Amino acid sequence: MNTDTLRIENLMPNSELPLLVRPLSHGTRLADVAEQLHHLVDSRLLQYGGFLFRDFVVESPIEFKAFAASFGHPLLSYEFGSTPRTKVEEGVYTSTEYPPHQSIPLHNEQAYTREWPMKIWFYSALVAQQGGETPIADSRAIYRRIDPRIRQRFSDKGLMYVRNFGNGLDVPWAQVFNSEDKTVVEAYCRDHHIVCEWKDDGELRTRQTCQAVAQHPITQDWVWFNQAHLFHVSNLEPEVRETLLEILDTEDLPRNVYYGDGSEIEDVILDEIRGVLDEQTIRFPWQTSDVMMLDNMLVAHARSPFQGPRQVVVAMAEPYGLPHSQDSIG
C-alpha cells in the first residue's frame, strides 16, 4: 500500500508483524504525518498487532513522547513495576535496566498484574554496537500453539505471583510504588486486590492472583497473557537458583509464581512454554530513530543481549484491567 507520503510494507518476508511504515520524502518528521499515522493505526493495528515507523526524523525522547501522546491517551507512570527503570520524561522511561549480557524473555507488559497498558511504544535513540534487538511475537499465535491441556490448566487455575522486594535482590518497594510511605503502599495494594505483608526486616512481600490467558476487549481474540515463565524460579540460571535456595526459604525468593491455588508449577511445563515462545519469536535489528508501536495484548516483546552503549526508551498508555471479581478467565 502506498499513500502520497507513506510507504507501507512487510518488514519480514514471512511475517506480517511488524508492519513497516516509512516516509517517501527524506527528512519527514513523525509529527508531519501524524494524521495519516493515526488513521493507519486506527484501521490496522488490531489486525497486525504492531508497526515499525522507520526513516522518520525523531531527534529526542521529547519528540517521541509527543508522538506517543498524540494518540489521545495520557501516558502512564510505571507503577507496580517488576524491573528497574529510570524516568526520562514524564511518561517516558528507559527500557529495563538489566545487565547487557542478559536476555529478557518475551512478555506482555505488566501481564503479571490485573491491570496493564493496551498500547506501548519503543524509541531507539542509540543502537548497540552488537545485539540489543527488541524481539516480538504474536500473542494470538502463542495461545494457539500452547498445548491445549496446558492452556486449559493455566486458564482454570490462574496464577499467583509472589514478590519479595528489596534486600539487594530485587527492586526496592519504595521505587516500585513511587512512595516511601507504607500507608500509600497498603492503599495501592488494597485498591488493586494485592495481598501485602510487611516482614520483620521491614521489607515487603506481595501476592496477587492473576489471569494466565486473556481475551482482547475489542477483537475478542484469546491471547497467552502472563509472565509465569519469567517469574518462576526455573527462569534463574541453575547456579543462581541453587545459591538463592541455600540462603532463602522458597517464600522469600525475590519473585516466584504458582498456580492460583498455591500449588507449584512444574518446570517441564514451563520449559515447553518457553519452547513455543522461542518458536514464535520475530527478531530484527534496530535502526537509529526507529519507533515501534504495539498493541500490548496482541504482541509480546523481549530484549536480546548487547554490547556497547544502547538507549531504547518506552512509553505506555490506555490502561485496561479485569474486574476484580474475576479471579481467572479462559
TrEMBL record:
Look up the domain of life of the source: Bacteria
User: GO biological process: what's one of them?
Assistant: antibiotic biosynthetic process
Q: Which InterPro entries match?
A: AlphaKG_dependent_hydroxylases (IPR050411), TauD-like_sf (IPR042098), TauD/TfdA-like (IPR003819)
Instruction: Give the UniProt keywords, A-Z.
Output: Antibiotic biosynthesis, Oxidoreductase
Q: Entry's Gene3D superfamilies?
A: Clavaminate synthase-like
What is its cofactor?
Answer: Fe(2+)
Which positions fall inside the TauD/TfdA-like domain? 29-315
Pfam families attached here?
A: TauD (PF02668)
**Would the keyword Transferase turn up in this protein's UniProt record?**
no
Q: Which GO terms fall under molecular function for this chain's record?
A: 2-oxoglutarate-dependent dioxygenase activity
Classification via PANTHER family: GAMMA-BUTYROBETAINE HYDROXYLASE-RELATED, TAUD_TFDA-LIKE DOMAIN-CONTAINING PROTEIN
Would you tell me the protein name for this molecule? TauD/TfdA-like domain-containing protein
